[in-house]
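User: Just a sanity check before I run the rest of the batch. Below are the structure tokens for the first item. I only need the designed sequence back.
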């Protein structure tokens, strides 16, 4: 299983999204495999990877928050309880991870 955070150069959420993803994976018991980070530099790369903005959280190449928009080298926003933000909240990301891998809830956190 591969976990990858996809970002664009200069994304203001890259570091915090990486920390968030690592924490969510650990809480779900999925921290055995390393978390890869890939920067998307071109529209061609975005189209090839189905990249819909930075940051994008993936497991085995699948976007944990699929959208119907065209792939693009751009920023991305996520709905959170506090409104739109540059990354999902921890509980929402954990739920997306569980849905993607089909595991039961990890340890409380």
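Assistant: Here's the designed sequence for the first item:
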């Amino acid at each position: 299983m591969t976990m990858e955070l996809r970002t664009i150069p200069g994304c203001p959420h890259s570091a915090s999204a990486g920390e968030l993803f690592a924490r969510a994976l650990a809480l779900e018991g999925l921290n055995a495999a390393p978390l890869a980070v890939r920067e998307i530099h071109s529209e061609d790369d975005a189209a090839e990877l189905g990249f819909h903005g930075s940051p994008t959280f993936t497991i085995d190449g699948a976007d944990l928050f699929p959208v119907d928009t065209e792939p693009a080298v751009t920023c991305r926003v996520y709905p959170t309880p506090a409104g739109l933000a540059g990354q999902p909240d921890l509980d929402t990301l954990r739920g997306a991870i569980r849905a993607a891998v089909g595991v039961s809830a990890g340890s409380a956190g």
